Every structure is written in C-alpha cells, then in structure tokens.
Amino acid sequence: MSEKVTIKVERKELHLPTIALRGLVVFPNNLVHFEVGREKSIAAVEWAMANNSNVFLVAQKEMETSEPTQQDLYTYGVVAEVKQVLRVSDELVKVLVEGKYRAKLTELDTTGDFLLSAVRSAPVRAAKPEEAVETEALLRALKTGFDEYLGMNPRLAKDVVFTIVSSDDPMFLTEYMPANLLFRYEDKQAVMNENTLNGRLQRLVEMLRRECQVMKIEKEIAEKVNESMDKNQRDYYLHEQLHIINDELGEGDDTHAEADDYRRKIRELHLAEDSEKKLLKEVDRLSRMQSSNQEATVIRTYLDTCLDLPWNTMTVDDLDIHRAQQILDRDHYGLKKVKDRILETLAVRKLAPDVKAQIICLVGPPGVGKTSIARSIAESLGRKYVRISLGGVRDEAEIRGHRRTYIGAMPGKIISAMITAKSSNPLMLLDEIDKLAGDFRGDPAAALLEALDPEQNSTFNDHFIDIPFDLSHVLFITTANDLGSIPGPLRDRMDVIELPSYTRVEKYNIARKHLLPKQLKACGLTGKVTMNQSALYGIIDGYTREAGVRNLERTITSVLRKCARKIASGAACRCSTVGQYCANTLSQPSRPSTAAAACMAGYSPAWPACHLQSPVNSSSVRSSAARRTAGSRSGYISSSAGLGAGRAAQSCKWPL
Fold it and tell me: Does the structure show a pLDDT above 60 at 229?
C-alpha cells in the first residue's frame, strides 16, 4: 500500500535593500523606470549599485505613508536588478530596473540607513495536469476579454498589443498584461498576491471585464454629453458631464432636487403671475449651478426669505366690541381717546370688512402708556404683535432693505417683521417715529411714506425681495413724543391722537391696580407689605412730578426694596413704621407733602398699630406751597426717588 509523502523544500533566504513603491507594482521579466525621492530609498539604490546587488521592490498599502514599516507593506514583491541610475538632483534619482523573480517578505529592518528585507523566492505554482482544461478555458477567456478591451481602448501601444496577441504562454501573460495595461495598483497587487497560475488567470479575466464595463459606461456618458453639449461652451460641457456621471451612480444632483422642491413651494403660494415668474427664474438659475457655488448660496437665501413671508396667511379679527373694551380697561387706566378710537375702528371693520386701515399715531410725553397699549390693542383684535424701534435709524436700507448686489444684503425692518409675525395682517408698532434721522445714505422717513400710505402699501416693494408685497391689511400704530419732529408728508398720512399727562387720580389708580401689584410680585413681598391710600398719594404728590408714571414706579420699587431688606434680615419686628425707616435713609422729597408711605412689614401680631410724628417747619411748608403753585403737572419734570418724613402721622397695617 502506497503512502503519501510530503516533501518540504527549504528556500534560501536573502537580505536585500528594499524600496517601498507608491502606487506602482513591478512584475518579473519587465523593465520599469521610476523616480526615487526618499532618503532611505536613495540609499538603498546607491548601496545596491556599489555592491552589485539586487533590490527588493514592494508596494506600500497607503501612498501617504512616508516612513513605512512591515505592516505598511504588501507581503509579495519582486527581486529586481538595477540597470541604470540617473541623479536628477540632490533629492531625486531616476532608476531603471528589471524584475527577476517573485519573492515574499518575511522580515523588515527599518533601523539602518535604508530598508533591509529578509525575502525568499516565491514562484507561482503551475497548473496541475488535471487543471489543464481549466487553464485553457481561462486563457481563451483572457484573450476574448483583451479583444473587447482593445476595441474600447484603441490607443494602446502597438508593441504591447502584438506581444499579448502573439503569446500563448499563460505564465508570461499573467505577468506582462498587468504590468502594461492601465489597472489600479491595488488590482495589480492582487494579481501579484495570487500563488497559482489559474488564480492569476481568473483574477485577470475579472479585471478585464470590469474595465470593459467601466469604459462602456464612459463611452455612453460621452455620447450623451455630446448630444446635449454646445460646442462653444466648455463649462457647460463639464457641468453636463458631471450631471450624467451622478445619474449613472444613482446619486443625482442636489441642486436639481432642491430646485424641484422650491418650484413646488412657489406654485403652492399662488402668487401674482409676475412675482411667480421672477421666483421661478431664480430657481432655474439655481438648478444650473453647483451646490458649492457662492452664487447658489445667495439665491437660496433669497428664495428662503421670499417663501418665509406670510403671503396668504391671515388671522381672523375678533370684532367683539365688549370684549375688546374689557381687555383695554383691564390693562390700562384712562387713555379714553385711544380706547374710543380703537373701538370705533372695530365697529367700522365689523360693518365694512374691506375698509382700509388708518394709520394711528399716538403722541404724548414719556411714560403715559403709548407703547404698552399697542400690545393690548393687538390682543383685543386677536392679531399678531410685532414692534419695530425706529429710534436712531439713519439708513434708508434699514426700512426698504438692501439690494442683492451688495455683500451681506438683507431685507428691511418691515419685511423682517412680517416674517417674524407669520401673518399678513399683524399689528405693527413703529416706536419712536419722531427719532428718525437722515444722512448721506438716505432719508428713512421718506422710505416710510410708501409703507404708511393706504393707497400705496398694497404693492410695497422691498429692495431685497424685489417683488410687491401687500401691507394693506397691516394695522400700523406709531408713537412719538414730539409731533413737530415728524416730517409733514409723513404726518399727513397718520391719524394723530394726543395723550395728555396723567392726573393725580389717574396716577393713584394706575399705581394701585398695576404698578404696586407688579412690584410686590417682583420683590417677593406679595401678602407681606401693604401700602394705603395716603401713602400712594404722598408718593405721587411729593416725589413724582412727571407726566407719566415711570418715576412713580421707581419710587414704589425703592420703598419696597427697603421693606424687603428689613424682612430678609429678620429686623422687621423692631421697625415701628416703614415711613420712619425710609425717612432716615432716603433723600428728602421734591416738595413737602403728606408722608409718602405708610406701610408695615412683620410677622408678630403682638405689635400694636403705631404712629410716627415728625416736626413741621413752617418755612418749609410755605416754600413747598410756593413750589407747588409754580410747578406743572404735565411737564417732563423728574424728582428724586425716596421717602422723607411727612408732616402727618400715618397708621401701619400688619398682615396676619
């Protein structure tokens, strides 16, 4: 009985200088020239020439690696003889080598002046007798694939074509074809790594077929591009070619899909014909650009701004006059003229829904509620509320926008407010319209003429969007301190309502109903501090010589801060009256009056009601009367905040 015997052949191991190749694979029996620039590679070539030695050529896996190790190199390479060396410069050498035989890298030493490899011969195993038929079939398939490849690439060198066509040696063809055809170096290395002849043939057949498919697709792309290409426009040709390549890859062009989405959104808005045509024209420009183009970014910003505008979005007006009056009375005390004017507007709109809105201008001194009442009006009408501050505006472009020819162009304040409101009929407050300024960049007041004219604002044209936008449904309310500072043409377009100064009784009611509860909550003193009627009148008469209620609110806040400090420190039970404490810590009032505050904070009900007596100076009383006679309640007179000693005793209330 015969036994199977395995014979192991020990091959001699060689130590050779090594050159790591970038993007290049050298096969046996082929002449190749390449350039060497790394110091270790140049040293290896010089050492091989000086010692009449061969070199080991092996490709590295990543071309970016500058100092390769054994892990960065492929296992199989070729032992080659250096035929010629030409030094081009101190840092560049041209080398001509001839591959001798295939070898396997077993060890690499990187510590010396050059890479030193331990290699041993690794010849390709020939086909077994029983595999001869398979080898013949693979060889025929290889020749057929090369014929197809040659038909699509006729520019191949004639000597290469003749050598391949005339040879029937499969071993020779597996080394000559990958060395002379345009394959990727990864594919060439895959052939080098194959240890069997049939494996190499199979790999080459697959590579040829894939290459033929790629060239076929390239040819189809070129034909498609040539059909749609204008011969005089090279740029158009390049863009179209890229578009077809993306279609073949199934990725498509981002700008085309984006343009289709913009077209759909624009048509859903049902704009006027001219406006829709202009926007669609911009979309067509976008579809012909690359997504990375800077101009495409500008077009996207423009289209997004136009689409964000509330073209056909409106809120339904609440025309319940009784509810509107309740809201206005709840939020503001007095202001009868303003409230009557708003209720009249509601009544007219209820009877004639299509009437054009009148622009209302509220004129009055600071602090009388011009700005705050606008929010209450918006709530009573059920409209969105937006506010534009016009104080210090100098550039006309801030009102009507910048033209898109400028870098960083943006829409004006009115269009930006409409985008914020997300409604085409909001209440828009133009605050401090008398503070507009003009310079060499234009007159903002003149730019407002179109927006505030009911006969023209239905086609308001912002320079940025450059298409008409309807502002006729917007309820404009403007505020001003000085009517004389508003230009005549602009003032002529507004219905002026003057807000006089608050009376003493109105200030008291505003303080009791609005200011005091607001500041008690802000200071955390709700239910802990009370302020009676005489205290509020004392503050109003002695400390707030103003038309509005801003100083009144600040003075009340100052009193409450003193109370908060006493309560927080735990010393409230040792304070007889708040008025006495404030008299010792704050400045004297503008004019002597009844004690400014009678409020008390504490926690022990054992303390009885207490009184504060302050001496009265007769001369100060006379001078106070004189100042009161000369003073004006409606002017812009400010007073120092704080509480002084009054001339009357004030009772104190303790919360239990």
Answer: no
pLDDT in tens, 268-321: 988 888 888 999 998 888 887 777 677 888 888 899 999 999 998 888 888 888
The CA-atom distances, in angstroms, between 386 and each of 121, 338, 378 are 85, 19, 9
Please tell me the distance from the alpha carbon of residue 295 to that of residue 521, in angstroms, as a whole number: 54
DSSP state of 62: -
- Cα dihedral sign, 268-274-279-285: positive
Instruction: Determine the 3-state secondary structure of 651 from DSSP.
Output: coil
Please give the single-letter amino acid code of residue 160: V
Q: How far apart are CA 212 and CA 230, in angstroms?
A: 29
Q: Where are the beta strands (DSSP E) in 342-493?
A: 359-363, 385-389, 427-431, 460-461, 468-469, 475-480
Bridge partners (DSSP) of residue 36 are 93
**Whole-angstrom distance, CA of residue 281 vs CA of residue 288:** 11
Angle between helices 533-543 and 550-569 (to 10 degrees): 130
**What are the C-alpha distances in Å from 36 to residues 69, 88, 572?**
18, 10, 92
Q: Which residues pair with 101 in a beta bridge?
A: 79
Q: Which two tokens stand for residue 348?
A: 């007219």
Each residue's pLDDT tens digit, 52-85? 889 999 999 888 888 888 888 998 999 999 888 8
CA 607 to chain CA mean position, Å:
63
The C-alpha atoms of residue 42 and residue 262 are separated, in whole angstroms, by 60
- Between CA 280 and CA 274 the distance in angstroms is 10
Q: How many helices (H) and strands (E) does the chain have?
A: 23, 13
- What is the crossing angle of helices 413-421 and 294-308, to 10°? 60
Check pLDDT > 60 for residue 366.
yes
Instruction: Give the DSSP H or E segment for 492.
Output: none
DSSP annotation of 289 reads S
Q: Which of 475, 451, 473, 333 is nearest to 400 (CA)?
A: 451
Please give the share of the chain, as a percent, with pLDDT higher than 70: 81
Q: What token pair was written down for 356?
A: 């054009």
Provide the pLDDT for residue 575: 35
Q: How far is CA 538 from the centre of its chain?
A: 54
Residues listed for the chain: 656
CA-based end-to-end distance of the chain? 119
DSSP for 316-358, please give it: PP---HHHHHHHHHHH-SS-HHHHHHHHHHHHHHHH-TTPPPP
Distance CA 635, CA 368 (A): 12
Distance CA 513, CA 100 (A): 104
Q: Is the pLDDT of residue 386 over 90?
A: yes
C-alpha to C-alpha distance for 421 and 165, rounded to whole angstroms: 78
pLDDT of residue 428: 92
Report whether 583 contacts 636 (CB < 8 A): no
Residue with tokens 């024209």, as numbered in its chain: 281
What is the Cα–Cα distance from 344 to 356, expressed in whole angstroms?
A: 14
What dihedral angle (degrees, nearest 10) is formed by the CA atoms of 504, 509, 512, 514? -120
Residue, of 576 and 500, whose pLDDT is higher? 500
* Alpha-carbon gap, residue 611 to 71, rounded angstroms: 96
Phi, psi (degrees; rounded to nearest 5) at 240: -70, -35
Instruction: Look at residue 625 and tell me whether its pLDDT is greater than 50.
Output: no
* Residues 531-548: tens digit of each pLDDT: 778 878 888 887 777 888
Average pLDDT of the chain? Answer: 78
Whether the per-residue pLDDT at 138 is higher than 70: the answer is yes
